[in-house]
Write a structure and sequence with these properties.
Largest sheet: 7 strands, mixed
Oligomer: single chain
Strand content: 15-25%
Number of strands: 7
Distance between the termini: 67 Å
Structural class: alpha+beta
Order of helices and strands: HHHEEHEEHEEEHHH
Strand order of the largest sheet: 1-2-3-4-6-5-7
């Protein structure tokens, strides 16, 4: 027998009775078949493992290379994507209103892109300070009836993923996104429905600290007629079934949360974030 149990050249092996040993040849054929089968299994197994590794790299966990790339891409969107794409003239809100009614929002004012100086009340500015401020983009929208106005903000931070995770944990743990003394400021523009939209007119708001992008997304809503609001309400509370406050009855919680959610989704899609992890 040649090394590995494969018959070598020369005469066939014989038994003690002088007849060809057919059992030995059958064993050799089976051995060759087993070797081939083992080789095929090895190739298939290697391919499956390689495919799994490749799939894991493409999908990525929270610390995978794809996620890190998407995080970096998101941080550069403010100077690589035109403002009309980041803050589009019209936003569709299918099922975003009370009772899952559809909404359409039209942009009526765009703030010059800038830093964050003077863009937030002092307390909110201090809460956001740990992640820094690379750039702030803001625009104000009105609904189809032009009775509501909502300012949307995209704060591009200077933080890495760990910094955004830490800020998100703090906002969640201390419920900072529900404190009325941490409401974002609105942006109003003369000659538009938002002209009278100032700090006293804020009625409802939503803040999302993203962990898969160095961005804080927020929206703050109010009435277009300039009425002051004594008891603003966070969007999640104003959207609850049976809520009877003025912001809730007017659907202003849906306005703030609906716009914030759509900008958050659009930003993730542009960055190519592999998964939409909770923010």
């Amino acid at each position: 027998m040649a090394p590995g149990g494969v018959p070598g050249g020369g005469r066939p092996a014989t038994s003690t009775f002088g007849r060809p040993d057919t059992h030995s040849r059958l064993f050799a054929r089976r051995t060759r078949a087993q070797v081939v089968a083992a080789a095929v299994c090895l190739v298939l197994g290697t391919g499956l493992i390689g495919g799994a590794v490749t799939g894991a790299w493409l999908a990525d966990g929270p610390e995978g290379p794809g996620t890190r790339h998407a995080f970096a891409v998101a941080g550069d969107l403010w100077h690589e994507v035109p403002v009309d794409q980041l803050l589009p003239p019209t936003v569709q809100g299918r099922g975003a209103g009370p009772g899952e009614a559809d909404r359409v929002w039209t942009r009526i004012a765009v703030a010059p892109d800038s830093g964050c100086e003077g863009a937030f009340d002092a307390l909110l500015g201090r809460a956001l300070a740990p992640v820094g401020c690379e750039r702030l983009l803001r625009a104000t929208y009105t609904d189809a009836t032009q009775s509501h106005v909502t300012t949307v903000g995209l704060l591009f931070t200077e933080a890495d993923a760990a910094g955004m995770e830490a800020l998100a944990r703090r906002f969640d743990r201390e419920r900072l996104d529900r404190r009325s003394d941490l409401m974002p400021l609105p942006y109003g523009a003369k000659g538009t429905a938002s002209e009278g939209f100032g700090p006293e007119q804020r009625a409802s708001w939503a803040i999302s600290v993203l962990t898969d992008a160095p961005v804080v997304v927020y929206a703050v809503s109010g009435w277009a007629d300039g009425r002051a609001v004594d008891e603003p309400q966070p969007a999640e509370d104003a959207m609850r079934s049976g809520a009877t406050t003025a912001p809730a009855q007017a659907g202003l919680g849906h306005e703030a949360r609906g716009l914030a959610d759509r900008f958050e989704r659009a930003l993730r899609q542009r960055a190519g974030t592999p998964t939409e992890r909770p923010s």
